[in-house]
Amino acid sequence: MPLSPSPGPLFIGIDGGGTRCRARLADAGGATLAEGVGGAANIRLGLDVAWSAIMVAVDAALAAAGMGREPLAGAFIGLGLAGITGDADRQRVTATAPVTFAGILSDTDAFTACLGAHAGADGAILISGTGSAAQIITGGQGRGIGGWGFEVSDDGSGAALGREAVRAALRGHDGLGPETAMTRAIMERLGGDPPAIVAWVGTARPGDYGALVPLVLDHARQGDGVAARLVREQADHLVNHIVRLRALDAPAICLMGGLAPVLLEWMPPWVNGVLSAPKGDAMAGAILLAMRHPEVAR
């Protein structure tokens, strides 16, 4: 049975990543009413694509709460979206909203994840999922580290691991590197020969590369030398991020994202001693962002 919301505005928190988008509805007291899921919402896929995924997730959450779109005009939405890099992106996100909200605030998915992880207090996070990014918040101000996009950044991510596996497969095929069970499996998965892989790469998105991760991990656990090296390299990238966050005097660091616990197994033991458990997730952080809208207090 749908919950009865507390009096006051509705708040919506969005966690929009490169693979899926999650929405959470909360009442004025912060209580969760319902959640919904949509597709990839990285704005680099196009703002129309991102907003479409956002609204699929929002509509699913509204339906689960027994609502239609009517309350949206009085709702405040906080958007944590992959692909946002600055104020110009935030302005474009607001300008292209397909429906009317009472207020819109957006930031990177790393910023909202950091807000959620530390319940709005200062701290830092390191996300490893389809993409990767670190974020530190001190004095209420956020600073991003990494996460500048699949083509030039996102070290320690599923997309990066998948990309390196494809490169290793081609090198193995050409005799420029080891050919192993993993490299052969990647070749077969993507069509069996270089022309097929080139065609696949032409339309592949970060999530498509990330979909190769289970195959790489399976072979790494079975002792495939190339697979193990690739996984260890991505884990090492995350360690470098943690070292940087410590150098910036992060009061607490949370490791987040679907790939994070897997890569943690490949990190040195000291890392466990500097990590903290998150207090909330990225949708909680996005709701905290929505509640910061200037119109909320009026």
Q: Summed up, what is this model?
A:
With 298 residues, the protein is of the alpha/beta class. The protein has helices at 47-64, 87-95, 109-117, 158-174, 181-189, 194-203, 206-210, 213-221, 225-247, 260-264, 282-290, and strands spanning 10-16, 21-26, 32-38, 75-81, 103-108, 123-128, 132-138, 141-145, 253-256.
Name the helicity range.
40-55%
Count helical runs. Answer: 11
Please describe the biggest sheet, giving its number of strands, its sense, and whether it closes into a barrel: 5 strands, mixed
Give the SSE order as H and E letters.
EEEHEHEHEEEHHHHHHEHH
C-alpha Rg, in Å? 20 Å
* Average pLDDT, all residues: 94
- Secondary structural class: alpha/beta
CATH class wording of the largest domain: Alpha Beta
CATH architecture of the largest domain: 2-Layer Sandwich
Number of strands: 9
Share of residues in strands: 15-25%
* The named CATH superfamily of the largest domain: ATPase, nucleotide binding domain
CATH fold-type name of the largest domain: Nucleotidyltransferase, domain 5
Q: What low-confidence regions span 5 or more consecutive residues with pLDDT below 50?
A: none
Oligomer: single chain
Alpha-carbon distance between the two ends: 32 Å
